[in-house]
Structure to design on (383 residues):
């Protein structure tokens, strides 16, 4: 069996956290995203460890070792240990004994084989010892190599345990799946049987998954499949994805970083604020993008009014949603507009203008200046 090689495994703090468990006679296995992403040579953000030690024991061992511990999820067997400022989520091996599609009642397990069977996808059930030695009880390595997102055991059962796994499946396929082969047909068949279960989930959980999905390098094929199966209509009624693939194409052409709100603006929806629990800032961004797409401002004016980043988003969305050509030279105009500074101040117009009349005159002169593509000087405008 191959070994996992990564900088984070050899860190002193990582080895110390594992030693707290192993030196007391307990198991310690890295599992989940840290293993999966390392094998895919992708960044690792969180380090998850599973152990046969009970959470109360983990807390005691951490205290004796002088590590800070946080009982972040005791009901599910999870304790966060903090070493040198780095958090490690330590969860006791578990097996589900009862589920209702949203929550699970869990019992502790003794082996990683038991623990593996309660996880969602095979690529998330690959384990590594503190020395990096891998253990693959369910064939996750082969699926990962083939970029195949596959439910563990029976897809119907896995989905019935937590209906959020429907959205997780599309998110994982968008991030890790092979677009050439498409999603696993057995998974899609089971998802089609359980679409109604999405209505039982909290909008906060749905919104969090949709943000992660829309931030994938190319979420368009996954979103299209969601539409076909009726998933999209359940999570975001009124959404229409015909502009998403063209937008992603333009993003790649212009080197634009994937952005969930830009992509959400492309697909729309009847009530994204409540359906996805958008924050006030997200809602402002969404509304501004959707509104600006239909306003025929020139690129330079967009840069001036909205700033360079937002103006670029608007240009990309406009081309994708209105099916109009995208002119890369407009990006230079955006930058020029973003750096332009209106040369007239209120003091330049008093005492000739006051109050509301002063404000109207400033707006009038500003519009003339914008229409001149910022060429008019203060003298040209004020005289």
């Amino acid at each position: 069996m191959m070994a996992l090689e990564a900088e984070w495994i050899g860190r002193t703090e990582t080895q110390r956290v594992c030693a707290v468990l192993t030196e007391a006679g307990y198991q310690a296995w890295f599992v989940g995203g840290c293993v999966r992403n390392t094998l895919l040579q992708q960044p690792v953000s969180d380090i998850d460890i599973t152990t046969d030690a009970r959470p109360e024991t983990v807390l005691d061992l951490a205290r004796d070792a002088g590590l800070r511990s946080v009982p972040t999820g005791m009901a599910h067997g999870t304790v966060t240990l903090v070493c040198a400022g780095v958090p490690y989520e330590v969860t006791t091996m578990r097996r589900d004994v009862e589920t209702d599609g949203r929550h699970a009642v869990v019992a502790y397990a003794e082996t990683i084989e038991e623990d593996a069977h309660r996880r969602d996808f095979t690529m998330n059930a690959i384990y590594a010892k503190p020395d990096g030695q891998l253990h693959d009880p369910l064939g996750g390595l082969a699926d990962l190599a083939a970029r195949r997102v596959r439910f563990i055991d029976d897809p119907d059962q896995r989905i019935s345990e937590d209906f959020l796994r429907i959205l997780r499946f599309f998110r994982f396929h968008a991030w890790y799946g092979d677009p050439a082969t498409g999603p696993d047909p057995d998974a899609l068949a089971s998802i089609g049987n359980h679409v109604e279960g999405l209505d039982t989930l909290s909008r906060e959980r749905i919104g969090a998954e949709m943000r992660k999905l829309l931030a994938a390098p190319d979420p368009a094929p996954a979103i299209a499949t969601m539409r076909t199966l009726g998933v999209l209509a359940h999570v975001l009624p009124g959404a229409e994805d015909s502009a998403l693939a063209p937008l992603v194409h333009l993003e790649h052409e212009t080197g634009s970083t994937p952005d969930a709100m830009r992509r959400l603006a492309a697909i729309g929806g009847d009530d994204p604020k409540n359906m996805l629990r958008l924050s006030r800032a997200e809602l402002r961004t969404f509304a501004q993008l959707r509104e600006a797409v239909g306003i025929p401002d020139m690129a330079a004016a967009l840069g001036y009014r909205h700033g360079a980043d937002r103006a670029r988003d608007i240009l990309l969305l406009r081309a994708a949603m209105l099916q109009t050509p995208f002119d890369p030279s407009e990006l230079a105009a955006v930058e020029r507009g973003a750096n332009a500074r209106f040369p007239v101040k209120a003091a330049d117009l008093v005492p000739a203008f006051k109050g509301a009349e002063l404000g109207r005159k400033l707006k009038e002169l500003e519009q003339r200046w914008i229409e001149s593509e910022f060429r008019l000087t203060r003298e040209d405008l004020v005289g």
About this structure: The mean pLDDT is 94.
